[in-house]
Hints:
By secondary structure, this protein is mainly α. It has a single domain (about 25-205), classed as Up-down Bundle (Rhomboid-like fold), CATH 1.20.1540.10. The protein contains eight helices and no strands.
Amino acid sequence: MKSRQNGPMTVPTGTGTGADTGPRPIWQRAALWIGGFVAMLYGIEAADTVLPADLDAAGVEPRTADGLWGILFAPILHADWAHLTANTVPALVLGFLVLLSGIGRGIAATVIVWVVAGLGTWLVAGSGETHIGASSLIFGWLTYLIVRGVFTRKAGQILLGVVVLFLYGGMLWGVLPSEPWISWEGHLFGALGGILAAWLLSADARRARRAGAAAPVLPR
């Protein structure tokens, strides 16, 4: 037998299956995150269909102690498959665009919308109602994308906001009272949450703009 000498070893590198290919591009990560979220919504609706328990009862019930839990659960619950499928494409498109500027920032925006929509609905919606559905997030993502560029003054975000407004702006009529089974309160406070998220998460850009404006101009 040949004896093995002690000492450092070299490991070949390359493009094989064990090679480190680095992080995925942001668009791939954004697609995976929003695709996973929507897949979860379908899994929950499937469970609600087959389980004897009524999961939809865990939505927001205004001004009740138990209804506070709905702030956490309402956006992932849907009344039926038609309700879920109606939300699917807007959720995929708008959620992807929100995450595209950064996963952490997109998640932060979503959390702000989630809380504002749920709490606002809990405070002002009619008694004896249960509010569910991802549309509160969709309205928040929509307004976030539309107004974000106004706060950051970034041309790309302003242009994206204009495009989103052109494609989905008609949805904003949903913040007004309409059919009794539609949670306009969830839409309204989701939209307000999106504006708040855009303002809060643009603080760094606004500070940089103020600092630039305040900097003295030195003579050449």
